[in-house]
Amino acid sequence: MSLPVIAITSGEPAGIGPDICLALAARRPACRAVILADRELLAARAARLGLALRLREFDPAQAPADALEVLHLPLAAPVTAGKLDPANSRYVLALLDRAVAGCTDGSFAAMVTAPVHKGAINDAGVPFTGHTEYLAALTSTPRVVMMLAGGGLRVALATTHLALAEVAGAITRESLEATLRILHRALQQRFGIAAPRILVAGLNPHGGEGGHLGREEIEIISPVLEQLRQAGMLLEGPLPADTLFTPQVLARGDCVLAMYHDQGLPVLKYASFGKGVNITLGLPIVRTSVDHGTALELAGSGQADPGSLVAAIETALEMVRAS
Questions:
Q1: Can you give the pTM of this predicted structure?
Q2: 117, 146, 212, 238: which could form a disulfide with 202 (CB 3.0–4.6 Å)?
Q3: pLDDT digits (tens, 9 = 90+) for 290-306
Q4: Can you list the domains of the chain with their CATH numbers?
Q5: Could you give the dihedral angle defined by the CA atoms of residues 218, 222, 226 and 227, in that order, rounded to the nearest 10 degrees?
């Protein structure tokens, strides 16, 4: 029986992405993990880390038994571990472009991404707010949903990388309904949950205190939830966020929908940091990612923990098998 082929993009070359990808040689996930990277970068980082391993160019027809598979894409400029160079930003994006192309044509069953550095990409003159938005544009997907999983939790977001001052205006009936429909469908199709139970957070403290601390719960969130309940969805909320993340409440759901980034993700990352997984829902392909950044100070040190990458691969496999 052939193993699923999963593309692993190595991310920012000056960060820990290459390090954690190389660590897969000792982990052997239950798939063909193909590292998208500059081959010489990986060889140089392996030498710096004192890793004796073989790198072999990816051959779709044959899986090597004793080497890491690499799909070579060339760097634009030499790399120094820990030192960003915006000149390599196009290389970082080329890794994503190639992984998406392979997922789209069936060469890869899924893609898993190591961290990129948003600042370096923007410094190169390329507007970039994150993997989630970039992959949505690349696949012509009008709306996607960002979800993180780990520590026994799944937390999806109604808004993603927005300034806090912009959050309330971005939550509309139309956007919230679309997000919940994507989330519900993905939990069914990608995670095999026949009747997903979704816990929906309110936006304001104490769920708005009956309108005294904001009316979004009354005018936007509650009407959408009631409409979708009538359509058969199992939705609970809007729930005050300060008591939502307690064991007795979480036990009632399969996933939490938080209204904004820092409402839901600090809790999940506290419960799972280093083992969490970032998942993009709504894409025509399976994409997961690590839950951490480039950690430039750890690049080439041998101290980078590959746990989140391993978890991201395992989650991608779970999603592939359920699809």
A1: 0.93
A2: 238
A3: 999 999 999 999 999 99
A4: 1-141+283-323 (3.40.718.10), 144-274 (3.40.718.10)
A5: 90
